[in-house]
Give the backbone structure.
Amino acid sequence: QVQLVESGGGLVQPGGSLRLSCAASGRTFSSSTMAWFRQAPGKERDLVASLSSGGSSYYADSVKGRFTISRDNTKNTVYLQMDSLKPEDTAVYYCAGDRSPLTLRYNYWGQGTQVTVSS
């Protein structure tokens, strides 16, 4: 059974940092595009960052220069380093893996981890 398990969320003050981790099991994702999405209350789930198997990354404009996506294929894990956090970054963050080249949809999702930025 394929699983993506996120960790590292929590409560942080504005300007602080968090590092999210997404550990995959059941199959290897080294040849897959991995991504982080987030969903704030009452809003749609939005793409935050993605990272292809070849190392190409994408960032939403709202997080450029503050967030960094990375992966460790030896650990089958993807990370999201979040710096200079703002209250508007508050959301449930989801890891996604194995993007279909045809539909551009992700086949696997984690359960989400809450990130709250507040003083």
Q: What stands out?
A: The longest strand covers residues 91-99. The chain is about 0% helix and 50% strand.
